[in-house]
Amino acid sequence: xxxxxxxxxxxxxxxxxxxxSCAASGHRFSDMxxxxxxxxxxxxxxxxxxxxxxxxxxxxxxxxxxVKGRFTMSRDNAKNTLNLQMNSLKPEDTAVYYCAASTSTMxxxxxxxxxxxxxxxxxxxxxVSF
Length: 130
What we know:
With 130 residues, this protein is mostly beta strands. The chain is 0% helix and 53% strand. The protein starts with a strand and ends with a strand.
């Protein structure tokens, strides 16, 4: 059974950095599309970034406009992990961050939809103080 586990959240001051990690097991990691989403209190779950599997060892990375230039993903297929390096954090980045996985093909558009992912981690809290 495919499982996804996030780690690395915490409290940081505005302008600081955090790295989130996502570990997946139960399926060949190199064949999966992975995504990061976040949900603030009272709000919907929003797209953050995706490492979409194109085929072979080719992946397409996309980021939400709100995090472009500040957040960077790195994928390590040998370790079955996807990291999200978050720099220049802002208070509005405060949310529970979720890692998601899909074994289905998806387009660049559908990769940003939470409903495109069947497997989710439990979430990790990121709090950015003023």
